[in-house]
Structure formats: C-alpha cells, structure tokens
Amino acid sequence: MLEKYHTFYEGLNVEGSPNVVLYPLYFMVRRLLLGLTIVLLDQTVIWQVAMKTASVIANVILVGQIMPFTDHSKYKMEFVNEVLVMFVLYHMIIFTPFLHDFEV
Q1: CB of 23 within 8 A of CB of 68?
Q2: Whole-prediction pTM value?
Q3: Which of 32, 42, 46, 59 has the highest CB neighbour count under 10 A?
Q4: Is the dihedral of CA 79, 85, 91, 97 positive or negative?
Q5: Orientation angle between helical segments 45-66 and 72-94, nearest 10 degrees
Q6: For 27-55, what is the mean pLDDT?
Q7: Where residue 25 falls among pLDDT bands split at 50, 70, 90?
Q8: Is pLDDT at 43 greater than 70 in this prediction?
C-alpha cells in the first residue's frame, strides 16, 4: 500500500512507528477542525483560541512522541512553527475583547 501512495508519505519515517502512517490523516483532520472552529464559533473568540491552543499542544506532543519525519530539520521547523503559533495565540488572548479594559 505504501508503494501505491508514496507521495502521501514522502518525508515521513514510515519504518519507525506504525502510527506515522496516520500522520497525514491527523494533519488533515486538524486543518478541518480549525476551519470548522472558525466558521461555527465565530461569535466566541475564547473558544477559537482554546481549540487552537489545544491543537497546538496536541501536535507538539504527537510530533515529539511518534517522530514522523525523516529529516531532523523538519522537527525543528515544526516546533518553531508551533511556538510561533502559540505566541500569536497569547497575543490574541491579550488583545481580544473578552478581557477587561484595564487602565495603565
């Protein structure tokens, strides 16, 4: 089966863990959940931030556990990407209207 669909698994370490084969499916489901969260929860920013934060944490744990990539630089790139997303999410928490407007 891997020979037939090798483009889906390009760059993944399919010999390492059997769970690596499910990584593209997880990636697609994660993107679909992001889209559904943005569309369905458009009036509640706190739930959008909470869902994305949970997704980022789950991805860091998953990538750290199953080690799906063949190249070590892809791990670094993935973790830097997730750290930057968390940085943006924390700024979103600070500057959204669900926090009280404190005078400085």
Answers
A1: yes
A2: 0.74
A3: 59
A4: negative
A5: 160
A6: 89
A7: confident
A8: yes
DSSP string, 21-72: GGHHHHHHHHHHHHHHHHHHTTT-HHHHHHHHHHHHHHHHHHHHHH--BSSH
Look up residue 55 and give its two tokens. Answer: 């997704």
57 vs 1: CA distance, rounded Å? 31
> Token pair for residue 39?
């569309």
Q: 23-40 and 45-66 helices cross at what angle (nearest 10)?
A: 170
Residue 12 pairs in a beta bridge with 69
Domain spans, the chain: 18-94
